[in-house]
Amino acid sequence: MIENPPKFFLRFFRWYCHPKLVDHIEGDLIEVYRQRMKKSGRRKADVKFIIDVLLLFRPSIVKPIEGYRNLNHYGMLKSYFKIGWRNILRHKVYSFINIGGLTIGMAVALLIGLWSNDELSIDSFHKNSDRLYTVYETILSDGRLDASFSTPGLLAQELKLSIPDVQYACSYWMKSQSTFGVADKVFKMDGASAGEDFFKIFSFTLLQGTLENALTDPNSIAISRKMAESFFGNADGAIGKSIRYENSRDLMVSAVFEDIPENSSLKFEFLTTWKLRIEEVDWLKDWINRSPYTLIQLQPHSDPVQVEAKIKDFIRPYLGGKYGDGNHLELGLLPFNEMYLHATFSNGKPSGGRIEYVWLFGAVAVFTLLIACINFMNLSTAGSIKRSREIGVRKVVGAVRSALTGQFLIEAILLAFLAMLISLTLVALFLPSFNSLTEKQIILPISNIKFWMICIGLLLVTGLIAGSYPSFYLSSLNSIKVLKGPQKFSSRAAWFRKGLVVFQFALSIIMMSGALTISRQTKYLQTKSLGYDRENLIYLPFQGDLARKYQVFKQEVSQLPGVQAVTRATQRPSDIGSHVYDLDWDGKDPNVHVVSIHGAVDYDYFKMMKLQLAQGRIFSKEMDTPSPDDRTGEVVVINETLLKIIGYKDPIGRTINSFGTKQRIVGVVKDFHLRSLHEPIEPLILYFMNWQRWGNILIKTESGKTQEALAGIEKVFKQLEPKFLFSYGFVDEEYQKLYESEKIVAKLADSFTILAIFISCLGLFGLSMFTAEQRTKEIGIRKTLGASIAHILSMLSVDFVSLILLAIILAMPLAYFIMQNWLSAYAYHVDIEWLSFAIPTAIIIVIALLTISFQLAKAALANPVSSLKSD
Question: Residue 306 class from Cβ within 10 Å (0-12 exposed, 13-18 middle, 19+ buried)?
């Protein structure tokens, strides 16, 4: 099949190209396009074709305007620009309003464009990105499809051995901070563990070492340039050197890689081998446990759809027998460069995530720029009366409509050009603050030709949209009528202007209602009661031999001033993510599959966290005495969600089976949130913590005495583990991190909404000024006949207020639909209240009245003699 370039841009080229050149140039364009498509693929060929078409739009190729083939086009364009510049200077206030609105609209569009481009560029630098995939797992639990990127630690190697289409595969597990030491230098570094193929899959630059040997030996480690310079002075001096890992074993530096770029979703300062990770965490050898990512690269000509079909049921044979038939687990593939933007799942498939914010703010950019263009249309059309005689004279001396249309479009583009220059300056000035707000490191790409092409495109599109209606309207005026005297707008033109006002304020109201809802939801996420007390709660990861010394540590720390309680748990309260896949109980339907999360906790956990018991009791030293070697525990506490699924009427003393072992239920706790409020509460099993060598110590401090307590805790820690650096975190801060995206979105939404309202009010100010000017004589007559100032003000303002009220009525249903759709992504969210519309309505009306009151009051207070003396 013959592949052709994008039809729209091909037709655009044929439209503007000179008839004598079109066949020759079009043939070359299509030939080059097909060569590029064979070499780089259709997508890149399409982009380069569009760029070529835009670059060819220049005077030497563009066909002449019909009827002006013999004119000096340069002189005509020069004349248009001169006239446009004079009009800008003559009508300074209107020009200021137009340029100001377009400037803000363009600045918002550029900032959002830079942010969106940064989001879309994440993980795009990998050479074989079109063949890189992340394996995700779909789980059927209690009739509901859930999915996760967590997979078994053995999966990567098995896929590579069993599926010929898989060229490379590796497991990847992001670790918490680890302690490293060389001589007297001791630092904590963030890192990960990865399989042997990691550097073959991803395009991270190796400064020292080889792809084949970087991650093969369990006693080797790959480190970043930054880490190499911190410990060894430079990258060259690090290779082959020994570094102490977790004060327990020496690792040899087998590779040094360049520092990870900002546009990578994988962040690490070091990589230990997957062989070492399996040694450290023995449960990774079991297929029922999962946690790491499985990352693969397909063979050059493999079809990902066919590969996904092959691996769909791949995991079932490995789970049969001991863990059931495995029919409730399936595998799927997601392109790796989409993982960052599509990290949430719906019905077992990747369906959303940060990509929704990219689309959201893309719409905000379009809305804001559209509001600015509407201002221009309104003011230019309203001001047409002032230029009607100019238009009449030009038509009388022979100007055709197409020439007048071109003149007004060029004036609009000139204003857009001035706005673009100012907006680029504003973007450069405010980019550091924008980066601080969005937690990014975006730079203004002034050396990138594509950026300037986008700016030129934005300038032209804005100018053409803003100037389209005014230019066609002005050029359509009848020369005889306009020369007879002042003109009135036709009902059609008046209704069009009013429609534009309604439309722009409707957009402003939708944006304000949306920003208010986002703000309320963000506050709700941050303040909602989770069912446990997370205030003044510190966690310390187990380091060294601290797990074995826990009782000594607890005794010492409990006596410190400012410390209320000490306990331990395998995971932080906001990060309980381990799953039980083989859950069973008496009377369970064999066709029902239930997946539960689980964690292990100590006796004091329930009291410290202020968890509420629904039935039974918590763990007790007197009543529960599991043996030190019992890794599952003889007794468990479950939550209400799991109890509803099991269906026990009297659960206390009844048993469940997990990990092939029977446990007795001694208590049921009321449901509490363990994860983001995007997700519903999951079934939970809490075991007694009596064997784990890993986990966290949880410490509750008194309000206002946290820093004093931390100083004492650090002292005790250093006494017990002097070779490790003291590290800690706050549970509340970890919970807040779950909603970093929402907080950023809320701030951006508030900022852009304020700007959109400001632009709308700029236009309203201009229209009110114009109305006051046009009705000066009417106001003078009314005042002469005895009309009060209050009556005149109400008469002048009623038209504007009625338009704004109409905008509110039209915007409310659409705003409700958009907000309801956005909130549906959260399992727990605020309700859409009447205040979500009442507050924006009140604010818009007040701001609008304040905007127009100055000009209308000025007109109402003017001396009628001044306006009537000419008559």
Answer: exposed
Whether residue 385 has pLDDT greater than 80:
no
Would you give the distance in Å from CA 32 to the centre of its chain?
Answer: 37
- In the chain, what is the greatest distance between 2 CA atoms, to the nearest angstrom? 107
Between 781 and 257, the higher pLDDT residue: 257
Burial 459-474, CB ≥16 within 10 A → b, else e: bbebbebbbbbbbebb
Going by their DSSP bridges, the two strands 270-273 and 249-257 should be labelled as: unpaired
Any domain includes 405: yes
Contact 868, 781 (CB under 8 A): yes
DSSP 594-646: --EEEEEE-TTHHHHHTPPEEEE----TTT----TT-SS-SEEEEEHHHHHHH
- How far apart (Å, rounded) are the C-alpha atoms in residues 30 and 37? 10
Q: If you compute the radius of gyration of the chain from its CA atoms, what whole number of angstroms results?
A: 34
Q: How far is CA 6 from CA 3, 10, 51, 159, in A?
A: 10, 6, 12, 39
Last residue of a domain, one of 690, 711, 735: 735
Residue 531 maps to a domain:
no
The torsion region of residue 554 among left (phi > 0), alpha (psi -120 to 50) and beta comes to alpha
Please report whether residue 395 resides in a domain. Answer: yes
Residue at 61 is within a domain:
no
Q: Decide if pLDDT at 630 tops 50.
A: no
pLDDT at 664 over 60: yes
The DSSP bridge partners found for residue 615 are 668
Give, as one character, the DSSP assignment of residue 17.
B
Collapsed DSSP state (helix, strand, coil) of residue 563: strand
782, with CB counted inside 10 A (0-12, 13-18, 19+), is middle
Region of poorest pLDDT, from 83-92, 486-495, 563-572: 486-495
With residues binned 3-state (H G I as helix, E B as strand, rest as coil), the percentages for the chain, rounded to 5, are 50, 15, 30
Give every CB contact of residue 54 below 8 A, 6+ residues apart in sequence. 453, 457
One domain, residues 485 and 608: no
Q: Please tell me which residue, 716 or 38, carries the higher pLDDT value.
A: 716
Helices (H), 491-631: 491-527, 550-558, 605-609
Residue 132: what pLDDT?
A: 94
- Domain edge (last residue) among 691, 717, 735: 735
- Can you tell me the distance from the alpha carbon of 632 to that of 621, in angstroms, rounded to the nearest whole number? 17
The pTM score is 0.76
Name residue 491's amino acid: S
Single out the residue of 218, 289, 836 nearest to residue 598, CA to CA.
Answer: 289
Report residue 298's pLDDT band, with 50, 70 and 90 as the boundaries: very high
Q: Show the tokens assigned to 123.
A: 């993980």
Q: pLDDT, tens digit, for every residue of 666-675?
A: 999 998 887 7
List helix spans (H) across 91-154.
Answer: 92-120
Do 504 and 519 share a domain, yes or no?
yes
Residues 6+ apart with CB under 8 A from 630: 690, 691
Give, in order, the Cα–Cα distances in Å from 748 to each of 112, 289, 445, 744.
10, 40, 22, 6
DSSP-derived secondary structure letter, 202: S
End-to-end CA distance of the chain: 77
Whole-angstrom Cα distance, residue 268 to residue 189? Answer: 8
Residues 133, 298 contacting (CB under 8 angstroms): yes
Domain count, the chain: 4
Q: Which domain holds residue 194?
A: 132-340
Q: In the predicted model, what is the mean pLDDT of the chain?
A: 80
Say if residue 49 is in the same domain as residue 159.
no
CB 245 within 8 A of CB 293: no
Q: For residues 597 and 448, state if they share a domain.
A: no
Q: 700 and 594 in one domain?
A: yes
**Same-domain pairing of 591 and 709:** yes
Task: Judge if 676 and 564 occupy the same domain.
Answer: yes
